[in-house]
## 1
Amino acid sequence: MPRKKPKKGKPEVHDELKGFDIKINEFGEIITNFDVDKVNEFLNENVDDKKLRDRDNPEESLSEEKQEEEE
């Protein structure tokens, strides 16, 4: 199977993430120019989590799971 050629230029991103840049350094650490909390907030709002689809209230279910893990 032939290798894919890397695409040149910058990828298209959502308007809320304009200027987002991510790199992995030589130690495997993820380096971004955005706060991780901001990226997580964006993902929570815009990406469907298939684990939470069947739950009535995902926020409630998440807090219940955290309580069970702490016990």
Note: Residues 35-71 form one domain.
## 2
Amino acid sequence: MFKALDPLLHQQLRLSIVSLLASVESADFNFLLEKTEATKGNLSVQISKLKDAEYLEVNKSFKNNYPHTTCKLTQKGRKAFEAYVEAIQEYLKPNN
């Protein structure tokens, strides 16, 4: 029997965000915007959903009088991502 895939992470943009953050200490909004090629509005909404689920820690500040948002994967988010990757690997094993 297959493990259920986390519906929060199964959405393409949210999975992209978490995947990017899994390999760095933290990332700012513009980095995520560039790498995901999402719109600002959609990226903002998906970051909020991940934050509400406690998968991300979001810090908002100002840098040279401009808003500066940074995101960091929480321990809960990292565990959820690792479980998601394990579940996908199970689906990909031959003879399942």
Note: The chain has a mean pLDDT of 94.
